[in-house]
Amino acid sequence: MKYVNADIIFPEELLIEIQKYIQGGMIYVPKPKGMHKKWGENSGSREILNVRNDEIRQSFFGGNTIEQLSDQFCLSIDSIKKIVYSKK
After folding, report:
1. What is the distance between the alpha carbons of residues 1 and 26, in angstroms, rounded to a whole number?
2. pLDDT tens digits, one per residue of 38-78
3. Does pTM surpass 0.90?
């Protein structure tokens, strides 16, 4: 999180109003509800996992066993089952 001086970004009237509640402290201003991103959206990790999971599903329905996929993708058998049997 980046520190920003309030008197640089807020109009004077708003700053005076905020100072009625807190002076010299730090506050966190959250993003609006619709602006939050899900895990991995910024870095691309979510997309990489989706591609991997699709590959696991295709391999399973192509005839590979859960044990083979567990070894191939270095995941636990339970993780492979969750991926294969999910409704996606």
Report:
1. 12
2. 888 889 899 999 999 999 999 999 999 999 999 999 999 99
3. no
Instruction: Give, in order, the Cα–Cα distances in Å from 45 to each of 18, 20, 38, 55, 59.
Output: 38, 43, 11, 15, 21
Cα dist. 7→21, 22, 31, 62 in Å?
Answer: 15, 13, 20, 62
Which residues make Cβ contacts (< 8 Å) with residue 49, sequence separation at least 6? Answer: 40
pLDDT in tens, 12-33: 999 999 999 999 888 888 888 8
- Is there a contact between 77 and 66 (Cβ–Cβ < 8 Å)? yes
Task: List C-alpha distances in Å: 2 to 14, 28, 29, 68, 70.
Answer: 20, 10, 11, 46, 41
